[in-house]
Every structure is written in structure tokens, then in C-alpha cells.
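Researcher: For the annotation table, I need C-alpha cells for RAB24. Please keep the output clean. Sequence:
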Amino acid sequence: MANKGVDIKVVLLGKSSVGKTSLVERYLHNRFLGDTVPYQNTIGAAYGAKKLNIAGKEVQLGIWDTAGSERYESMSRIYYRDAGAAIVCYDLTDKSSLDRANFWIQELRDNEENCKLYLCGCKLDVIAEYPSKRQVERGAAEALGDMNNAEVFETSSKTGENIDKLFEHIASDYLTVCLRQVKNLRESSKSFRLTDLQCKEPHKPKCCVSS
């Protein structure tokens, strides 16, 4: 049976200006506009998609870059509904952005409790050049991650450091859950249609996998 692939909805959340849009631009288009284009706040949300291959399976990431401004907070709920994964971003040079990450984590816990969380510290290139500008220590982010079962990545949209790694890790985690359910169904039933499969554990991703 042909491999039909896996679709994953990924949402980016975080305080305004932490670097969400730059992260998406680097991942989807391999470009950094920060030095050439004036910064503009995202209004509502922006969408992009990318296909990749994980362990021989085709995976499509549908990525929603949401506005970080407080006036758009209620609107953001529309975009992270039914997300399989959420990247909660913070700025490594701004301690308040990690504090704000707590808000988005709680939002997800209250509204999409089964969504898998990832913490992403942005602007690693700034820290590499000016170490004294670091306001968020990795240990503080990891402590927050440990409390919320979220892995921590530190990235640079300017250099691309760790960005592919972050998204590939999300896809791999998601696919592992789907394949685990396929295995469990095979062991529990002699007859089922893989095209009807809905992954539900541990964070209810929505996908179909055939092999």
C-alpha cells in the first residue's frame, strides 16, 4: 500500500518581536531579512508549508506564525486549535520574553492540552557575538521545559543554526507516535484500514499513515 504521508499542524507562539517570523523565513525560504527589511509585526497569523522525509515517510509541516501582540491573543486561539505541535519562542536577550512564554504554555494547557510543546530561544547569533547580552540562561529555559515536558532549542535565524534540527525533531516525534499506534493496532486486530487511522497518543496528533 502506498505511503500517503503525514500532515502536522505546527504553531509558533511567543511575545512580539522575539523572532518567530524570522525563524519561519529561514526554515521555509532559507533567508534572513532582518538586516535588509524593516521589522513589521505579524497581523493575525501567516501560514507556510514544507515537506520533508523522515525515515522514508513523507511529512508535511503546516506552519502557523501567530502575532505576539497582546491585542491578538484571542485571535491566536483560532490558529493553534488542533495543533499537533507548538513552538513557544522567546528572545535570549530579553528575560521578559521567557516570562511571557509561561502565558502561552498555560494557554495551550487550557485550550489544547494534548499539543506537544517545544521551547525555542531565538537570536543565538547575538549571544555568540555579544555574550553579555544573554538574559535567559539555558538552565532557566530547561527548568521551564522540564515542568511542561518540552524540549529546549536555541536557534539563530541569521545563521540558520539549529533551525532544521528543531523542525526535523518535531516531525520525527510526531511520526513516532503515529507509527506506534499503527503497531498497537496491528497487534490488537487482524483487520483494520490504515487509511482511517487517527493518531491519539500521547498528544492526539491528527494524521494518516499507510505502509
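Researcher: And a one-line annotation?
Model: The chain has six helices and six strands.
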